User: What shape does this take?
Amino acid sequence: MHTLKTFFLNLNFFQSSNPSNQSDEHEHRSNIIATRIYIIIYDISLFTLILSLWLSPNIGQVTVQYPTQNQFQTLSLDAQCPCSRISLSYGQFVSIQTRFHQVCSSDFVSNRWIKAIFYDSDATYFYRADFRTIGSAQFRALASLCDLTKTSISRSLASFNMKSIISPYVLSRSVIQSEAQTSIE
Assistant: This one.
C-alpha cells in the first residue's frame, strides 16, 4: 500500500526537458502538479461524458402498424415512416364541399325558364322596353356563367385531389392544415 501511495505521489507524465539527472527540483515539482491537474481534468471530463450518456434518453425504434387516431397524435414530431410510400394525395384525407350562389341552382338558369320567356315568340311584336326581348339572352348568359363556374371549380377540385403531400416524417394536424390551405389558395 505504501509503494502505491508513493507511486501516485511521484507520478509524472511530463518528464524534464533536461536529459541529465540533475534536473531542477522546481521543474520536477511543477511537472508533478501538472500531471495531477491533467488527471483531475481527465477524470472530470470522463465523468461528465459518462453521466451525459447515462442521462440521455434512450432512443429506440418502435414500429406501429396502422396507428389509431390517438396513437398518431401522441407520436413525436421526428417520427419517421418506414413505409416505401411517403406521399398521400390530398383527395385521400381532405374533403372540400362547394356551395354555389343560389341563382346557379335556381329555375332562372334552367332551360325550362329560358324557353318560357321567349318560346316561339316574335320579338318584333314586343314593346321595346319589354323584358322578353332581351331576357332570354340574359338568362342564357347567366346560365353559361354558372356552368363555366361549376366546370372550373370541378376541374380545380380534381386537380387539388390529385396533388400530393410528401413527407417521411409524421406531420402535426396544424402543419397538414397549413399545407392543404396553401395548396387550395
Observations:
- The chain has a mean pLDDT of 79.
